[in-house]
Amino acid sequence: MKKGFFKKYLPEIAGTVAGAVGGFLYWKYVGCLSGTCVIKSSWYLMIPWAAVLGYLAGSVAGDIIRRKRKPAEPQES
């Protein structure tokens, strides 16, 4: 793969990894001890769910970063 791929999608990749780690830590230390919470009671559901949320947050951040870096296009009148 090209080096530019990781540089271009760094916010999305970082958000996904941070979400997965955060989901694991949430499951480990907060979780749901009674087992009645479907997502929070098992690590194999909590980690992907948090990774998706992290990806979405990283995607929004990546769009904002890319929009600020891109020069403004002149408007035609």
Protein model, in words:
This protein has 77 residues and is an all-alpha fold. It has one domain. 69% of the residues lie in helices and 0% in strands. The protein is built from three helices and no strands. The chain has helices at residues 3-8, 10-29, 43-69. Helix 2 packs antiparallel against helix 3.
Give me some keywords for this one.
77 residues; 3 helices; 69% helix
Mind sketching the topology for me?
Elements (H helix, E strand, L loop, with lengths): L2 H6 L1 H20 L13 H27 L8
The rounded distance between the terminal residues' Cα atoms is: 42 Å
**Spans of at least 5 consecutive residues with low confidence:** none
Main beta sheet: strand number and arrangement? none
Instruction: Report the β-strand fraction as a percent range.
Output: under 5%
Write down the overall mean pLDDT.
85
Structural class: mainly alpha
The percent range for helix content is 55-70%
Number of helical elements = 3
Q: Helix and strand succession?
A: HHH
Shape: elongated
Tell me the number of structural domains: 1
Summarize the structure.
The chain has 77 residues and is mainly alpha-helical. The chain has helices at residues 3-8, 10-29, 43-69. Helices cover 69% and strands 0% of the residues.
